Amino acid sequence: MKKKIGIMGGTFDPIHIGHLILGEKAYDQFGLDKVRFMPAGNPPHKRNRKGRATDEQRVEMVRMAISSNPHFELCLAEMNEDGYSYTYRTLERFREENPEEEYYFIIGADSLFDFDIWREPGRICKACTIVVATRNQTSNERLDLTMERMRQKFDGTFLKLDTPNLDISSKHIRQWIEENRTIQYYVPDCVREYIEKYQMYKDCD
Ligand code: ATP
Ligand code: MG
Predict the structure, then answer these.
(1) Hey, whose CA ends up nearest to atom 18 of ligand 1?
(2) pTM for the complete prediction?
(3) pLDDT tens digits, residue range 92-107?
């Protein structure tokens, strides 16, 4: 029996409860052994943007947010490069290095709609099962149709995560902070305190 590993990739600028709920729901629904949270490296032109978290801060917030969950892990595979990492390469490397593992890559509907323009979607599909959560009130019908289209186009396995629409994004959180509005309960307390301590996202690009 191979180990089933969920991978939750993202910019996590900052991590929020939507990301955490997706990871936990995927763990439960697909009987995963672990879920790895894998922050994407920022390419040089996106680093040090005004008011934004540094790469180290994004990683630290992920680390704190997942620390209380024994089946969540931090994965830095995409942080050590020049900031340009491609999912297909990362997954192919994982498979080469860990033949005893199989991968469930977790995405939201907005990422599914972009999937065509990711690098090498066919190779991503060979390397993992793709788990899709609804987002932005996407109807089940539209989600099903798009998953079917991607299945046919890339010969992949696309499974639907059984989650309600979670109306939250990092963009909203950054915006609320700029407007001095509360973000409580949208991010774990430890993340909120960290953001406050370092005065992040106060005046961001
Ligand atoms: P931003 O607003 O900066 O784009 P985000 O909230 O979309 O941030 P990302 O780090 O870009 O967060 O997302 C990582 C992955 O998590 C993506 O596949 C995205 O679709 C998914 N995701 C994030 N938030 C949600 C949500 N509320 N519901 C479903 N999927 C989500
Ligand atoms: Mg996003």
Answers:
(1) 107
(2) 0.97
(3) 999 999 999 999 999 9
